[in-house]
Amino acid sequence: MRKLDLVHDSAPRRKVTAMGSDHQFVSRRHFLKSAAAGCLALAMTPTLAAEPVRIGFGMSLTGPNAPGGKMFLLGREIWKDEANLKGGLLGRPIQLVYYDDQSNPSLVPGIYSKLIDVDKVDLVMSAYGTNQIAPAMPIVMQKKMVYMGLFGTGVNDEFKYDRYFQILPNGPDGNRSFSLGFFETVLTMRAKPQTVALVGEDTEFGHNILDGARANVASLGLKIVYDRTFPPSTADHAAVVRAVQAVDPDVVFVASYPAGSTGIVRAVREIDYAPRMLGGAMIGLQFTPIKGQLGPLLNGLVINENYVPEPTMKFDGVDAFLAKYQERARGAGVDPIGFWSPFAYAELQVLSQAVSALGEIDQVKIADYLHKTSFKTIIGDVKFGPLGEWEKSRILYVQYQNIQGDDINQFRQPGKAVIMYPREFKSGELIYPYAKARGR
Questions:
Q1: Angle at Cα 58 formed by Cα 84 and Cα 202, nearest 5°?
Q2: From CA 260, how far away is CA 238, in angstroms rounded?
Q3: Residue 46: cis peptide before it, omega within 30 degrees of 0
Q4: CATH class of segment(s) 15-169+318-383
């Protein structure tokens, strides 16, 4: 297990944050120089002398999932800092205790055992992504703690743990809802497509998404002509794309994490492959650094999203949060735009509202309250269903359009990630076929 932050004596320490600052060793000179300013700051900050509320989690801060992990961590830090300025939680200061899982699912169980048994955290949350959420489930269930998940799909379908809740708006049938918008968009094309290729990473995420895609394809009367997975360690995706091209499907649906998503996009352009429609649950393409790297290669892709700056998506507080996130992100080595970061903030809004309403940290009561209550957040109203998923799906499908060059600021504007689905958020029309949409 990799611990975070090396302090003055170079000994590894866990990362603990409270009151908006990190606990660390400081020199006597630095202390004396900061004394006057510190006195003033203390006078202006609420007094929180009680034992802190400790919220623990793993997070992917190195490895291929790090761009997302760092973005989500900043979202949680912003919530923590704001909450502490307002008096904390239950009148106690809030600390975040977290470890780097290195994007490695095998490290996750040990991290959560340590958080619960050694660090004695009061509340636990997940890292981001299905592959990092699922390995902690047996540990959390054994300890009977509420578990707040960040962007998992189908994790609780098998466990059916009544204290699991997750903030990704999958809806009650997460596996199917994650691809439904793609196939509903397929059906808007004139001369209805008939054949589909399904391609996914050989991971829990890939299998969950493809299970749902198969069900959607069957219900919509389409025919699967290719259905295979590839190892997540694949370095050259050209062979994967050529195998799909050989069966000549009308549309191609891909389920992948960042390395696979970027690899598929580059291979498609290298081979000059152009089915009628291409996209899917391609995680990573939503992250600003990857958008900047791929630029116009994104044009025409139809992929899942959760928030984009289209005029149909305006929620109270989200613009103010994003302004704060983007200010803090400057020079911090994190996604500079961070359109998914509001979900990390919102899950803590939900959890803190439950704890505050109850007036205590009781895992049974918190779970019961989370099941029964609708919550106001910066991503809209959140209401959980029986398995801890959103009561109603709100997974977006967008098409990238009119992207020019590699300037990331263009993605701050509407009209670049145009919403195709769901209908109530639709903000433009599909450009098809794929060759036309990408400017071939």
A1: 145
A2: 11
A3: no
A4: alpha beta
Query: Do the Cβ atoms of 205 and 130 come closer than 8 Å?
Result: yes
Alpha carbon distance 124, 115 (integer Å):
8
How far is it, in rounded angstroms, from Cα 178 to Cα 282? 11
Q: What are 245's two structure tokens? A: 């091209």
Task: Count Cβ atoms below 10 Å from residue 3 Cβ, excluding itself.
Answer: 15
DSSP string, 308-329: ---TT---TTHHHHHHHHHHHH
* Contact in structure between 355 and 366 (CB atoms under 8 Å): yes
- For the chain, what percent of residues have pLDDT higher than 90? 86
Tell me the C-alpha distance between 279 and 438, whole Å.
12
| Contact indicator for 393, 169 with CB cutoff of 8 Å | yes
Q: How many CA atoms lie within 13 A of 121 on its CB side?
A: 29
Contact criterion met (CB below 8 Å) for 66 and 60:
yes
* Residue with the two structure tokens 């975040």: 96
Same fold flag, 15-169+318-383 and 174-312+394-437? yes
Whether 402 and 439 have beta carbons less than 8 Å apart is answered as no
SS (H, E, C) 240-261: HHHHHHHHCCCEEEEEECHHHH
Enter the pTM of the model: 0.83
What lies within 8 Å, CB to CB, of 21 at 6+ separation is none
Sequence ranges of the domains in the chain: 15-169+318-383, 174-312+394-437
Q: Supply the CATH classification number for the domain 174-312+394-437.
A: 3.40.50.2300
pLDDT digits (tens, 9 = 90+) for 156-206: 999 999 999 999 999 988 789 999 999 999 999 999 999 999 999 999 999
Closest CA to 130 of 183, 68, 56, 74: 68
